[in-house]
Amino acid sequence: MYAIVDIETTGGHASANGITEIAICIHNGKKVIERYSTLINPKRDIPIYISALTGITNQMVEKAPPFEDVAHDIYHLLNNKIFVAHNVNFDYSFVRHNLLAAGYDLQSKKLCTVRLGRKIIPGLPSYSLGKLCRHLGIDNESRHRAAGDAEATAQLFSLLLKSDTQNHILQSLKVTSKEQLLPANLPKRDVETLPSSPGVYYFHDDKGKVIYVGKAKNLKKRVCSHFTGNNTGPQRQEFLRNIHRITHQLCGTELVALVLEAVEIKRLWPKYNRSLKRFEHAYSLYAFEDQRGYMRLAVDKHRKMTGAIYSCNTLFEGRTLLLKLIESFELCPKLCFIQNNNELCTGIHGENCACHGGLLPHEYNEKVEAAINELNEALPTFAIRDAGRTDDEHSCLLIEKGKFYGMGYISHYFNVDSLTQLKNHLTPYPGNDYIRGMIAGYVTKFPERKVVFS
């Protein structure tokens, strides 16, 4: 037995909106044998644009029963039936959420007439209920009202049952299918063709734009995890509705996937990614020559496309590094913007310091250059050689002078002993402290995979 359901609501997600109308058609596989329909008081105002769409106003539902008063009837109509709806996950999320609030735990198999329509009647320009019904000659004089849409969906379902020569409905109901968990607009083959390997996956909207980037140790398992559970929050419900396609890139290891994910989020700026979007270098160490010819070192906010000597997350970290350079190379704290008053220089040379002309520009600049060279030499240069995407290649990531250079794949037989030759085989990528920290942590855990250049 099938329960064909349609609801009207005050908004797009169950956790913060209410049902204003519900209609249920009980279908025995041949025809509708029972009908149920009622307005429902959602206990909140119906937005004007929703009223304009459905025709349901606050006055109409004012004396209608709240959901908990009809929950018993609805549960017993739906229990032990296959829950059918056009974009089933939307209707099911609302109904199940409200039934749970009333003390009823609905656990139903589901069928989506959007997904079934795409399979059984392929090639149509649109599978919205209105356009699908017009194409099939199904009349619906009460569009955007629960009873009218439920009746139209029931007629559509009857046609799908008769036209299903490939047993798509039976296949969808198998325990192992999991198809009804998928977003309505996502082709099942996009998930079926995913490998169980490390990689980065991309969710695309109906226009092909990337709306989410994720990484995975097992691509198929991770992607499927997005579609399980009954989270009724607005972000997840909107997110699922907008997924129309999945693409992916294989990666040799989870580390490569982690790094590529961070790079791609910064490059594509997907709508539904949050945390890695916000990561930026906060401060950097810069060197420049002033009007008198003296080299100045300064810690300032990080600026893109500038020649920073070193980048860091906090002003404290940058100033601590600069203080060490001042002490080690007898630099002037005033010329390094550490001392900003008009009093005597607190540097080791006092009144004979460069800021008072005690050292000529070329004499002082030699000290600054020595400090920069020492800093560059202290920053590590190494590669990580690890598993590749296939048995005859290795993945390789390169840190050069403390900064992430890039990554790529090399042959098993490639001898990583020349930094210049290795860089010719790698793709440069923008880096940040997040990527650098991941790689440093990985090297600490797997030191045998580190390649140091002499």
TrEMBL record:
PROSITE patterns: GIY_YIG
Biological process (GO), any one: nucleotide-excision repair
GO cellular component: cytosol
Protein role: DNA polymerase III is a complex, multichain enzyme responsible for most of the replicative synthesis in bacteria. The epsilon subunit contain the editing function and is a proofreading 3'-5' exonuclease.
Record-given protein name: DNA polymerase-3 subunit epsilon
Limits of the GIY-YIG domain: 196-274
Native source organism of the sequence: Mucilaginibacter frigoritolerans
One family name in Pfam for this protein: RNase_T
Coiled-coil region: none
Gene Ontology terms, MF aspect: 3'-5' exonuclease activity; DNA binding; DNA-directed DNA polymerase activity
InterPro entries: DnaQ, GIY-YIG_endonuc, GIY-YIG_endonuc_sf, GIY-YIG_UvrC_Cho, Ribonucl_H, RNaseH-like_sf, RNaseH_sf
